[in-house]
Amino acid sequence: MRKPSGCLKRRAETSTLSDWLGKAQEKLHATSPEEPSSTLRVLIAHVLCEPSYFPLVHPDYLLKPEQEIRLNQLLDRLISGTPLPYLTGKQPFFGLDFSVNPQVLIPRPETEMLVAAALDFIRKRGAQVIAADVGTGSGCIAISLAKNQPGLKVLAGDISLDAVLAAKQNASTHLIGQAITLWVGDLLSAIHQQFDCICANLPYIPNSRLPVLEVSKHEPISALDGGEDGFSLIERLLEQSASRLKPGGGLFLEIDDTHAGRISQSAEVLFPLSSITIEKDYAGLNRLAIVRMP
Q1: Is the pLDDT of residue 7 over 50?
Q2: CA 136 to CA 73: how far, in whole Å?
């Protein structure tokens, strides 16, 4: 009789996916009502190494004790504010999955606008195009460009060694390591060649705004802090790019909404006769600056 008793006890202590989801939803909605329930299914898929629809198809699946412990740990971190991509270690961007960690900024949909615009420019530019991705972070811009444009050569750099190592891992995962050359350095200071296309999503948030932003509590400050006015790094890159862009080349910069007028003024001085375009993001805010050389 002892064996059945032991089995019954073990079953009573083990939650089904449905049980865990019910309790987790109550806890999540009590503390973070804006967080969608689908986030919990993403956590389950991550821990169980199953598709995100697995909890819907198998609600009676019995969680192993170690699985339930891990899920509860991740739930607590989620409630404390840790972004979901840092919990799962990945973030989709431009149709690809990128490994991310707290040493790199989480790729955003707004940055996909930059990639799409740069790709369109590169394809019109023709063969043997050389591009640069300054402040590469996870490598999402450089890798997305190279993955979608065979034959493209991209030099990608970041002042953070941890970021460059993350970009190297992602380049290897997506099998385009030969198309990308990585470097560690301050903007373009260590690079002396010219490019057909320069892309950058540099830190552009004025440091006075950082304390009130939720993003600054969990993502690397070095990838967010743009200095007193948020424009210092962008201004330096503009100055460096003036001698690094080939005739007919293009510069693609993600910017703060408040920088549109200033970047236009600087570009008019540094890039005579060039065309300057400011594009808005999905929220209607100035987000992408494009400078096309004559």
Answers
A1: no
A2: 31
Residues 281, 287 contacting (CB under 8 angstroms) = yes
- Mean pLDDT over residues 142-164, rounded? 97
The average pLDDT across 45-55 equals 94
Beta strands in the chain, from DSSP E residues, in sequence order: 90-93, 96-99, 130-134, 153-158, 180-184, 195-200, 245-254, 275-280, 286-292
CA atoms within 13 A on the CB side of 234: 33
Q: What is the mean pLDDT of residues 130-148?
A: 98
> What letter represents residue 197's amino acid?
C
CATH number for 246: 3.40.50.150
CATH number (domain holding residue 51): 1.10.8
Say yes or no to pLDDT of 269 above 70.
Answer: yes
Tokens of 141: 């811009």
Last residue of a domain, one of 49, 81, 113: 81
Instruction: Indicate if 56 and 95 belong to the same structural domain.
Output: no
Bridge partner residues of 134 (DSSP): 157, 200
99 and 75 in one domain? no
Q: At what angle do helices 161-173 and 140-148 cross, to 10 degrees?
A: 30
Structural domain boundaries, residue 196: 91-292
Domain count, the chain: 2
Q: Is residue 13 part of a domain?
A: yes
In a domain, 133, yes or no: yes
Contact 245, 194 (CB under 8 A): yes
Mean pLDDT value across the chain: 93
- pLDDT of 272 higher than 60: yes
For the beta carbon of residue 115, count every other beta carbon within 10 angstroms. 23
Statement to judge: residues 54 and 151 lie in one domain:
no
- Over range 12-40, report the average pLDDT: 90
Residue 86 counted as domain residue: no
**Using one digit for the tens of pLDDT, what is the confidence trace for 79-121?**
999 999 999 999 999 999 999 999 999 999 999 999 999 999 9
Same domain, 135 and 254: yes
